[in-house]
Amino acid sequence: MNLADMLTYADIGQLTAIAGRYQCQCKQNSKHDLIQSILVTLGSRDFLESYIQGSSPEELRFLNTLLFDGRSHFSLEDLLAAARQATFDAAPDKQGNYRELVSRFKNGGWLFNGASQQTRYLYQMPGDLKARFREALGRHILEKVDGSPEPEGYRSEGDMLESDLLLILRYIGENEPELNQEGALYKRYQQGLMKALHIPEPLLSKGGWRFGYGRAGEHYPPRLALLYDYARHRHWISEAGFRLRLTAAGVAVLEAGKCKDLMQLFSFWLRLYKGAIPNLPSLVYWISTSADRWVSVPSLVRGVGWLVKPFYYDDATSIMEGRVLRMMVHLGMLRLGESSEGPAVMMTSWGTQAAAPKKLFQ
What we know:
Layout: H1 3-9, H2 12-21, H3 31-42, H4 45-53, H5 57-68, H6 76-86, H7 95-107, E1 112-113, E2 123-124, H8 127-142, E3 154-155, H9 160-175, H10 187-196, H11 222-233, E4 237-238, E5 245-246, H12 248-256, H13 262-272, H14 280-290, E6 295-296, H15 297-304, H16 316-330, E7 334-339, E8 342-347, H17 349-354, H18 357-360
Antiparallel strand pairs: 1-2, 3-7, 4-5, 6-8, 7-8
């Protein structure tokens, strides 16, 4: 439902609270006047711009969660969990802080109780407000992102991720490499595998923490780890008996000689990194809308990085640069170049297509 419909079902107490918050000039005892005044106020583009400019990062992160959540209704527990995530768990012992954030959104006219008997204890956000807030938040982010001169040269990996997935299967089929006690390939096999790929990566050094980005991320660099976890997810490889072998399904893929799995790899990456980066789909969306031209990487990190919650020893900058932008380059979604003003990126046509809301948030 849209805002006008939800205001009609709202009780006069909530309408009065909303009108009072925005100092609407109307008859406080007339539901019709309250609704009309609220619609005029909240329907103003200047109002939405001013609201976003005056909101705290916590409020904007909470709003961002609501804008990109595909559910039509939320329980209070859902909203409290989203509020806690938006505050980066700053005060886990003070549940009142999260409730107060939810209450502000309800009194602000962004959240309403359901109209039916089944949804009266659930909350929903008006559909037209979601669309308008998404546009306004997009403009807010774009203001922080600087354009960049076109680089003399740039890196674009296209569909090489799919090609290297086949090369990994071929290497496993031909060598049946050994696994150590931790279930990882011995270094000599990792080195041999890297030599066979189009896009090699430096092997991981000893020490350091590596978790949260897939099981293989503990043993292999990010691009290889994604491909390895994906092949295991598709049941194309088997780790039985400390040997890495192809399954019958893996042999069939290799014999077919083609692997059109880029969209599936992208979807798998979103799910794989969800634990460490819960709002990854919305980050991809904002990067897509911001980098439809060549833009400065530091400004893009600045424009979107405030949405990123640090993950253990990964801060927002390292997550944006290493876990999001770099992987989007590997997925063929971004071009990466070096301009006279520093590193720059621009979305590819495939990346823009994959980052469309209907595909990201279905």
